[in-house]
Amino acid sequence: MNIIVCIKSVPVSDSIINITSEGGRIDTTNLKFDLNPYDEYALEAAVQLKEQLGGNVTALSLGPESHALSLKRVLALGADNLIQLTADDETLSDALATTQILAETIKGLPYDLILCGKQSIDSGNATTGRALAQLLNLPCVTAVVSLTIEDNRVIVARELDGQRAVFECQLPCILTAEKGLNKPRYPSLKDIMAARKKPTSLQKPLPAETATTIIGYQHPAPRQAGKIIDNNPDAVPELLRFLKDSAGII
Fold it and tell me: Which fold has domain 2-203?
């Protein structure tokens, strides 16, 4: 089975985000990058399927060339090869252009299954899996929390308002991984050493037409200080008056 996993290098979740003085971009000078957590669930699912059924796992990423070091961790986590596509900042900021480039690359690769993370923790668009399915004319199920393959069918489940919905579709298809699908592994020293011999490819794809443009960045306005009326039951009438007359909530 040939599995493609779309991955992205993102700032680690506890990063302090700074904006350049002119407000035109994010200052990445002191940012540390690592694999997008949702993409790790997708990669772990792909590696588990390879261990069960045999086959090959290709990790595919679009991003700055400087992210090569953090991306290579996928090889230690079980991917058989890595394809890193590079593009300018304008292309990377546009979800449609990003997906078009990924789709054109995927068309030239063998695949039975395509896995993505549910979303990236930086932009949070959650569009890559859906858009790829549209461009490649493939069935798609998003935010899956369980996954099994029987014959040429994939059976997945996703959480919906406290319930679990189960879907079945034919391969090839596209799935996006939700937290809880699995527990990503930690690479052993043997895995890290073996990763050095696995093939990586750095490619400059053809540019895609962008549909959106980032005008600028700004931090959200600071929150107003909270108001503590009192901490005893006698303060309830005053609290209700404040919510009605001052806050306009009731």
Answer: Rossmann fold (3.40.50)
